[in-house]
Please model this.
Amino acid sequence: MDTGNSESVDMKTFCKMLPKIELHAHLNGSLSDATILRLLQDKRSAGAVDLPDSAEVVIKRGHNRTLEDCFTVFGIIHCLTDNVSAIETITRDVIQDFVAENVRYLELRTTPKVIPEKMTKEQYIETVLNVMVEEMQRSDIIVRLLLSIDRARGVGDAWDTLKIAKKYKNTNKYKDLVCGLDVSGNPNAGNLCEYLPVLQEAKESGFKLAVHLAEIPNDSETLAILKSKLVDRIGHGSYIHPGSNGSHEMLQIVKQQSIPIEICISSNIMSGTVKNIADHHFKHWRNEGHPLIICTDDKGVFNTSLSEEFLMCAEAFKLSMSDLATLSLTAVESTFLAKEEKNLLHLSVQKELQDLKEKTGILL
Ligand code: IMP
Ligand code: ZN
Model:
């Protein structure tokens, strides 16, 4: 294959221009500075007191923290997004941020939340879905939603999440917009094995499953979840490959089931679960020829963008423009779209890559 490097467009510009697929983005973790400032302003004009100082919230973003600190930050953000109007704002802003990055397909994920006397879980999810529908009409992007199960909230809450997911899957207005479930939350909390009955029923109900797995070392949990054969995509998977303190057994299972891995480099480094980019498990899985998808995780909290994640990956692992284009195109296969929709998305990304090639002279 040609190295595909062109003198006319630098790598940074190329990463921005590339049509991209984002499969791992938590709604509340994806807020830009501008969105956070708007939310603070709205809160203040509604007469709220005891709010975190805007500078305090904003300045702390993008800093290296411990994993526990990250979950404290999510708590602060959740204080700002505790009403329907804020959910409308953040969903719109986050989708538009991804549109501006040339993301053509976005799978957002979020944990349904209830705020007594302000918002039910159904209102929360319906608000997100309504904005998704509007934004898809306005812009060249397809958006789908995964409902997140938070492993720190217990199995009862997970059953509730599945019930809500089923309700919206079967609604004509939102048909197929909720295409799967995510399992996330503080990896030090709870035990994923307790959630297996919920995940089993979710699969039987036609949902795809993206599971945060081995974000920190936990071989027994990781093995049990992998052996269940329920996982359609792995989030992080930092401690699965033997080259990154996993094991041959886990590697073999992931390879046999060919489970794509969502790679979130800034998130792993900034939250301290991976020491540095040179040690990142991306390189081991790439050597295996395994399906990988470059993602942001929480572009707000980790102060990044999908274009920057592509650039970082290219620089660290010596990827060419052609390699990045291939990563973008093959990511389509890992989406939770139905076969026909996948084929259409594949064709349109392929066409756009062809146009990019003609416009820039880049050999893709
Ligand atoms: P939300 O679900 O839209 O509120 O997005 C924020 C939530 O996503 C957090 O409270 C966590 O439950 C989850 N989350 C975000 N990043 C991570 C991660 O790196 N590991 C596990 N869970 C995460
Ligand atoms: Zn995540």
Confidence is low (pLDDT under 50) at residues 1-5. Residues 24, 26, 184, 212, 235, 297 surround zinc ion (ligand 2) (CB under 6 Å).
